[in-house]
Records
---
Amino acid sequence: MLWFTEYYKGEGMELQGTGLSMKVKSSKYLKTPYQELLLLETEDWGKVLVLDGAVQTTERDEFIYHEMISHPALFTFPRQVEKVLVIGGGDGGTVREVLKHQPKEVVMVEIDREVVEICKKEFPSISKGLGDERVKLTFGDGREFVKDKEAEFDLIIVDCSDPVGPSVVLYQEDFYRDCFKALKEDGIFVTQSESPFAQNRVHRQVVRELEKVFPIVRPYLAFIPTYPSGMWSFTIGSKKLDPLGVAPSALGKLYRELVEREGALKYYNPEVHYGAFAIPNFVYREE
Ligand code: AG3
């Protein structure tokens, strides 16, 4: 029996002698123009997508990441969301969750066509939304894509990998400024923002850079067993709407309607919505 290990290393990783191992039944390796791609069939986690040595998606826990990158922002809108931009997100899981809110249009800009092709074939339950007629899939650089956009999107979601290689530019203030401009006047931005335990400095940098750009910045947490340390974060930057300002009665109603229409969610619920924004002391400790 083979084992795969993600060795924690690379830009921003504060654990240097730690990793996560999984027992592997079979594996496929491929080099795309952008990264090294590994597709694993594992004993515990189902199929697993690994990019440049970092676990991205497992069939068993992907629901946590994809529900939590999408629903806290989407449930913050008191109105129907019309146009959503997803940057990255090649496996399609984020688009699947966004579609549950019945937007008119979802634009996804992914840099690596081969990731999408593999995920369409190997992860049909995750990528199924990508075939939806409301989804416009484009391949290219998300950083470039937002540069000339103005007041176009209700919501921008950045579903990117660690700040190495093609993702580095998605962690920088001038990118956040362009996203601000690309959003409508009550628009919301959300990005995955790494592990506050294992990548504390990167996490804090994301929050700090967003605070230079958006009046409302709200980091929040989710438990993701296959990511470094298991403690993961996302950060919302918002022009007007505060995810903590949503009235519980309004959220409860929207949530029940969605569940009735789309079926049960597996992680997000209204209690998780408010609770996720509670951050332990060590995360923003003085250094
Ligand atoms: N993107 C965030 C993955 C970061 C994981 N980091 C790591 N394993 N070192 C996930 C993409 C899912 N759509």
---
Amino acid sequence: MPDTTPRIGVLGLQGDVPEHFQALEQAGAEPVLVKTAAALESVDGLIVPGGESTTVGMLLERFELMEPLRRRVADGMPLFGTCTGLILMAKEIEGSRQPRIGCMDIAVRRNAYGRQVDSFETELAAPALGEEPVRAVFIRAPQVTRADPGVEILAETEAGPVLVRQGHLLGAAFHPELTPDARIHRLFVRMVKQP
Ligand code: GLN
């Protein structure tokens, strides 16, 4: 893609849309709200934000976005999933047959930290993003319980990988849109510019 401003969609069925818009602007992209197949066709990459993965999966099917989205991803469109987005990208969701995009070679366990630690924040080392650690906000987060060869682990905790990349696919178990640090969005913008 030439050095123009990429148009990056944020799936707007549920979840943190304004926060992703802000982070994308900070990272030098033009954010686009995606709620229809026509809007999906118009973007160079897509973010699937946090929410409730059963609801978002069901809405993707109801609005007839699931198949077009799978097709675009299969054709190489970069996709970035945060929390629910990561769950929907996983080929395997432990103990669940819920609708999913199912494009990344990982297994996840939903709500893996239990009720006692519904949400928490931590600092993560992520050498691919630079020396400065990443402040990560986890909210009813999934755990990545398996990452097949070919999946790059960009950051992890003692509970496993939390920031993963497989080619044009990027997934975070946490919410990078909730902190002012836009490095992960910048990485995604780079992936969109040079798929
Ligand atoms: N617990 C949610 C789910 O299973 C994900 C939470 C989130 O996106 N913050 O879909």
---
Amino acid sequence: MSGKQSITLNINGRGHEIEVEPRRTLVDAIRDNCGQTGTHIGCEHGICGACTVEIDGEIARSCITYAVACDGARVRTIEGFDDDTAMARLRQAFTEAHALQCGYCTPGMMLAAIDLLAEHPDPTEDEIRHGLEGNLCRCTGYQNIVRAVRNAAAAMGPGVPS
Ligand code: FES
Ligand code: FES
């Protein structure tokens, strides 16, 4: 007996029926079972935010979430934002403000930023820093990331388009 369980994950609008052990993390299931490798793995301890995804509309750390706990859930990863207007503006702002270097933190940072902008369409610097404090970046020193989020908010105007 393998001890595996059969679950269904809807990732970026596409259903995946997979078999996983109960201890398998969601990020491993997303990357290895479902082939969506845009979500990164950093600390694997819920600290760095690299593995941030949306689960049923709420951002969460997929390295400390069991895949079996997400049976039937809608998961959105960075690949699921390809046609998202707000994400397109955020991507452009990150590029223009030089808000990434190695890019390892960037997918998680962007998901956290989109979540932040949905709640605070015109965020103060403090709100941005607070909103992104769960996402660590080892390269940039954060200044340019904060600037990028502010510039993206200004470009979007009131309300975050989806
Ligand atoms: Fe999940 Fe660091 S890899 S929080
Ligand atoms: Fe390298 Fe953030 S750009 S960790």
